[in-house]
Design brief:
The chain has about 120 residues and is mostly helical. It has a domain of about 60 residues. The protein is built from 4 helices and no strands. Helix 1 crosses helix 3 and helix 2 packs antiparallel against helix 3. The radius of gyration is 18 Å and the shape is globular.
């Protein structure tokens, strides 16, 4: 029996998601970060402030015990982060994978922190 390919979705990589996010943002008239804008005094800080605002909204949703809104706000955070890093690299997957591997090697309670 053949699987129904119309209902199955192939997972996208982080880099593919970033490219899609950037395409949607451009299509909706929103500015997106380009690599040459890295040194611009306000571009990255502005994006980080927007991410911070989304984190605050997620915290508020958690405090209000609104799980669906919390998940929606967390999606906003991921979208903003991927939209930003997508302007700096087309292989964020490798960066995240390397970071996960480094974290795996750090061990339980690394840095003397209580667990």
């Amino acid at each position: 029996m053949m699987p129904d390919t119309k209902t199955r979705r192939v997972p996208l990589s982080l880099s593919q998601l970033a490219a899609n996010i950037r395409t949607i943002s451009r299509g909706n008239g929103w500015p997106v970060l380009a690599a040459e804008e890295w040194s611009y005094r306000h571009k990255v800080p502005d994006i980080l402030c927007l991410i911070h605002g989304d984190v605050h909204e997620a915290l508020q949703a958690f405090q209000d015990d609104e799980q669906a809104q919390f998940l929606d706000d967390m999606a906003d955070i991921v979208i903003r982060v991927l939209g930003c890093v997508g302007g700096l690299t087309d292989d964020f997957d490798s960066i995240v994978t390397a970071k996960l591997e480094a974290n795996r090697k750090r061990g339980r309670g690394h840095g003397g922190k209580r667990v």
